[in-house]
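hey m, so remember when u said the tokens were messed up on ur end? i reran from scratch. heres the input so u can diff it against urs
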Amino acid sequence: MSDFNQRIVAPSLLAADWSRLGEECHRAIAAGGDWLHLDIMDGHFVDNISFGPNFVKHVRNIVADAYLDTHLMIERPDQYIRDFIEAGSSNITIHIEPEYDVGGTIAKIKESEISAGLALNPVTPLELAEPFLEQIDILLIMTVVPGFGGQKFMKEETMPKVAQAKKIRDNNNLNFHIEVDGGITPETASIAADHGANVLVAGTGTFKAEDMATSIKELRES
């Protein structure tokens, strides 16, 4: 089983300066970022549009060895996973809320020998994810309503789910990271870690920080 006590910080490229994408990717890694998080939005599942497989492919070409944590906030992930696998994703996380074959889509991701994640919006109950917990490598519990950066951390709605997920994982000897995304600061990172999260996605808190290395260090050690 992985060491879930090791805290992983994943700077989100949604908050990067895309006009200097290569520099921003290298800056995040040099500052201590463990993963790069890529938010894919289709304008349907969430009320925003970000980027697609070609962007992921470009990032992979820039940082050949980086762990690319691709988060599909889209209505039909089952129709696009092949594109994101071929683009060079290290992990693909899909949402449980849309209507499609969630289990089959996770299986197809895993067949490609990359890791698979399942994401829940803040108001989505953990019970909906329980049938898939044995299949996945990452459980992403959104700590803001997905779509836009810079939102406030939703503690009351999300932290009980984080704690419940950790309990289920530990009691059943399962093997998935618990990831949180949205409003992550040193203070909220500490709260999330206390409840059982070990992967912290931060966009504004890393790329917009005065000193990214200091920010990442504070997220990891808070």
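this time it looks ok to me. The longest helix spans residues 155-171. if urs says something different then somethings off w ur setup not the seq
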